[in-house]
Amino acid sequence: MKKLILVLLISLLTQLKALAFHIVGGEIELVHIDGYQYYLNLVQYFDNAQTDNPGPDLSVQVYLFRNSDHSLIRTEILNLSSEQAVKYTNPECAIGSLKTSQVFYTAEITLEPSIFNEPEGYYVVWERCCRNTSITNITNPGGQGMAYVLDFPPVIKNGEQFINSSPQLFPPLSDYACVNQTYYTDFAGTDVDGDSIAYSLQLPFNSSSQVALPIPQPKPFVELIYANGSNINNIIPGNPSLGITSAGFLTVNPSTTGLYVFSVLVEEYRDQEKIGELRRDFQMLVIDGCDPPTPPRAEVRLPGETEFYNEIDIINYSASEEKCFQYLVVDKAGENVTLKAEGVNFDADVSEVFEFTSGPINDSGDTLRVEVCISDCPYIQNEPYIIDLIASDNACPLPQRDTVRMTINVEPPPNTKPYYLSPDANTIQVRSEAEGQVVALDELLIGIDDDPFDSLRFFFYAEDYDPTNYGMSLDTVLDIYGRKEVKFNWNTDCKAFPFGGKNTFDLGIVLEDYDTCAFDSGDTLFFELEVILPPNNDPKVSGPAPDYSRQIKTNLLFDVFASDEDNDPIELTGLGNLFDFSNVGIDFADVQGNGNIESPFAWDLSCDNLGINKTTNYTLYFIADDDDYCNETNADTLAVQIEVVVPSNTKPDFQIEEFYSLSVNEAFELEVLATDGDNTDLLTLDLLSPNAAPASEGFSFEGNTGVGAVSSILTWTPECSLLGENRTPETYPIDFLVFDDNCPNTELRTLTVNFQIEELAVDYDIFTPPNAFSPNGDGHNDTYTLSNLTEEFYNLPPDNCDDQFQSIVIFDRAGGKVFQSSDREFVWTGDGSDTGTYYFHIEYLNTDYKGVITLVR
To answer: pTM of the full predicted structure?
Structure first.
């Protein structure tokens, strides 16, 4: 609990940091490394044009929640890794009010399969406040913050590891936009898993509070409050307003200057199932006064044609035709034009089609002309291909572009397919060969090509294995134009090749020619092959029961045995289903031996080892594998199901009242008692915080611990300073805390007890002091005192805030002073005084008492 208090104090101090006016956008990424290790990244975009915050934070803290009940799982600290400037598309367009850097935070984390396995998935949240006060399209931007969110799937699906990285490598928004000019950018990222990504505009999320560093909260999140007619369909006003395609291409033709904030929802799909999403926050600056751009105009003129190419036409080329034409670009004089070619329905590099890739429009404003020559070989087979020829100038803030999209059908050079002369490729070749041989499976494989100048090649086609790793080879006997002969040789020696793990093979041997365009064109001979292995008995695993149920904080012990009838060398191993033994506290050693072996299993089911908060099932596998002559995979596996039960935990409770009345200067004592229904939990009792007790020298309370019950004595003699104005009663709440050590679900309870401090009511009239004493040494009435006497009315009245004891003075009959004290606990022994009558004067601040005392010896 002291740690919790310290964290809270640190959190409060951290609020003194500057608000987040310097953050203009960003997103969260999760990148798979290996196993269950991931990089968790936070990408921020930092406004370097402002001066209030000279640099980014050195670290950020993110919170991980689960979707099923939105409970917090844990937090992670991401440290600053790098910062780099975001470059303009055209550096000559730079302005002082837009300078951005990309700031990258990261940490390597583990997503444990025992925790991150719920099908509803999980999400990461980071919050910060507040936004740039200059933002145009939201109300009170200085009072609205930001929340970045990444949803990700579980690491286990259908009992198997589910590997996924979130979409990443998104380009930044590097340029400003101009009023009445089309702004465009590719805002799309990539997905290393090949998942589909869909993009849409959304309203950004607000932070959960307006402090500089809010504690991130779970779903649902609150969206920003938009102003000035802005909404999801009009985030940046314009014609058109801001929009994004499902492929991530962002466009707007803004009509009004301002600084606009928006968010892009990035949804991730695998096999048509949504598995995750994230939101990208960003700001776009729109300015006025830009030079109106004159976009380039691109056209294509085919040889012999007077009209320009119409994009609805398909151009057909025969194999023998020259495939060149003119590409013409018209633009403002002095503009430099960049040329680029992109395939639309194919992925080949077509950059070489232009005679040159950039050039100026001369001072006379002449048309830029460039020859385009396409390949004699079509980029795709059996259908027309589509190619974009793009011209871009160097206008600010973004290049203006024009594109000619051409559809072209190219007849490839003629080619005759090669074929097998021997054996017959229409028949599957089935072969079974004994282990330990080197055989030629057919006398010769003969390939023929009727094109007299085509070379031929044979190669293996196999799925999920490399035939050369299993002793297969193709050895050339004859290789001339139009004919090739090879031998298919196979070495079945299991000491040289791993037939113990795989001894059946589906195989194709492809015959292909080297034609001009290197298209797939050939014949395939298929084989079904088997190596016949020596006989071998399977090993056996025994020992543990198939099912166990144990409570957390107990132990599980058993022995595991493995045996082999052939007395082969065997190995006994153990592994967890999607978890490592060492990560959960299992002590089990893999062992080797001949014939019969065993190994003890011990599991300390402690909270620290397991890290679970609910009843959890674990599947363990014990595997015996023998090492026979061919290393054949003959294994026996015993699955053991173990249920670790997490019982419910009873909250501790206080056994005291919630209100007590105290008087000043009067000692008060209270046993603060708390109990726990589980009776076995260690309880800790203390004040909720060091500041929970009032500032009073008369207050005392020490924390304590106990099993099943805990108590500690509170003592308090209140001072007058604790009263209210005009000595009125004053109430002081004191917060107590009790918590147990039950794991994994610790429970606590707090209680606020109100102590009312009142003025001490004193009846001064009942005071009747004793009037005699006998200091004769007999042990009875030997001294004169006015405290701790049997009869209450003999004792000095107690002090209160209005009247307090000052002194006592005792005089003899002649008026001489024989005793004086300012201590209300005084004792007069009568030493030096004779028998007789004496007079006392007791003085309080506002009250006096006078009387006689008889001293008798």
So the answer is: 0.53
